[in-house]
């Protein structure tokens, strides 16, 4: 192996408490450029809360978050997005009245410039920008195989397709770091396989760093470079899929049931 | 009709994103322009042209309010007051500095935008009914201030006389000249708002309205865009106030009281929230309704009511009609007249293949 790629995201011992609930308790994580890292853990372990701190929805009570050497702790979500961190949600947050195309076009927001005056005038700068960005959006539509749905409102789409549109919108930001919160939740096996392939392609073709929260062990062990395990707000393991599967704490805390152990063994 | 879609394929992204995606619509728009710019002012009596003037002014204000309420999902009951800010800014510029219209109109708009943006600051924290009350408070405070500060209001009865604007050194005397002058601003507002709605800023407004969490996560600063919406919307209101002042020949705060704020809300609710065409329909409808009912009652009401009763009924009937129409449209047809128009249009859209 050659030189290690540089660290892109450095989270150091962040905590978040809600009243008496210690949602996140002193978690640190460092992510290298181009890495695909999965975060697993039982329900309520603090996975979503952890992502919320990276993307700016929660301000950490303690600790700090550095992105590309710059302190982003407690910045507004829109500022963090502008730096190149995109995100999807566990329970889909699309603009349901808008078409697939408009949703993805909105994902281009931070990559476009037209202000109030040039939008008002339109012809010239704004139109040119619309056309070039529309071309990028079409690439994503094609990549995620959404061609037939372009002009459909997202409210009418099946659950799995809406998750895919949300991924397209996040990718439209041309992110350097992509945070995915259970992108395969609620999908059937075939949809999961499609989604896993899209995620791998994004990671490998474009070199996008990805932090993935996922419950499906087979998928996690299959596609991740590294796996971090959370339990009750703490990080209890962090390593390659093989290391994590053999970790005694993990087996006790998370893979305690016979069924889960079989899943891991099968993976 | 405007839209005949069958058999038209778009071959470039620019064409797909055009305001009028179908070739025939361009001709329809050209025909409409010919009708309203050439034929109407020539054919109609001064009195009717003066009513059209009022509609043109209302179109600018309704479009502005729709940017805030329909597109961005905020509320304002202070737009009457924002109009008065534009009106008095322009009137003072004319009286003290002899400023021409191409200075007073943007100046009135900018001053109103500034005031509107300040009034919009609470929208970052409060929503719905609380924001409505905050903007209502702004309406009353601005009214009071203008009325009690002679430096703004000109002292006597809080009104300032303003001569008609001049173009190339000649003042616009006739209603028809004024009509064409106002038409230019209405068209500018219509085209500009349509452009805004279909590009980056307009999409961001709609995003803030529909899903604020999703808007933030894709990098749209809710803070910035809510303030922009208030500022732009109030800019339109300020321009509306200046135009109205030129139309009346006087700036007077009584022309911009809370009922005006309500009238404009009625326009966009009846016409259609978040729709340019709806703003135009609403502006025409709400301007014409009291005139038509008054005419109707004066012509036929005398058979039933005494003159004294009529004088009482007419202003109240206006309120009752507006109230019931707003409720009707909110409950039955939230997309307003624009939706009714679309239903008609869609029927003809693929005609005669309407299977
Ligand atoms: N905004 C909040 N207010 C109060 N409690 C919260 C909030 N967000 C998270 N929590 C609590 O923090 C703990 C961790 O929640 P979190 O959503 O981060 O878990 P998770 O690992 O994503 O779980 P799941 O797998 O079910 O999605 C839970 O006990 C949750 O109830
Ligand atoms: Mg979660």
Written description of the protein model:
- The complex is a heterodimer of chains A (267) and B (355).
- Chain A folds into two domains: 7-84 and 175-266, Rossmann fold (3-Layer(aba) Sandwich); 99-165, no CATH class.
- In chain A, helix 3 (100-107) packs parallel to helix 6 (159-171).
- Chain A is an alpha/beta fold and 267 residues long.
- In chain A, strands 6-7-8-3-9-10 form a six-stranded mixed sheet, sandwiched between helices. A four-stranded antiparallel sheet of chain A has the order 2-1-4-5, covered by helices on one side.
- In chain A, 45% of the residues are buried.
- The longest helix of chain A has 19 residues, at 125-143.
- Chain A contains eleven helices and ten strands.
- Chain B is an all-alpha fold and 355 residues long.
- Chain B has one domain (47-349): ABC transporter involved in vitamin B12 uptake, BtuC, CATH 1.10.3470.
- Helices cover 74% and strands 3% of the residues of chain B.
- Chain B is built from 15 helices and four strands.
- Chain B has helices spanning 13-16, 23-43, 46-71, 79-97, 101-120, 128-148, 150-153, 175-198, 200-210, 212-217, 222-248, 258-271, 276-300, 307-332, 336-349, and strands spanning 159-161, 166-167, 170-171, 250-252.
- In chain B, the strands form two sheets. Chain B has a two-stranded antiparallel sheet with strand order 1-4.
- In chain B, a hairpin with a 2-residue loop joins strand 2 (166-167) and strand 3 (170-171).
- The longest helix of chain B has 27 residues, at 222-248.
- The two termini of chain B are 18 Å apart.
- The model of chain B has no long low-confidence stretch (mean pLDDT 90).
- Chain A binds chain B through residues 55-57, 76-79, 81-82, 86-87, 89, 93-98, 102, 105-107, 109-110, 112-116, 119-122, 126-127, 129-131, 134-135, 138, 169-170, 172-173, and chain B through 12-14, 16-17, 192, 195-196, 198-204, 206-207, 210-211, 213-223, 228, 232.
- The site of adenosine-5'-triphosphate has 12 residues of chain A, from strand 2 and helix 1.
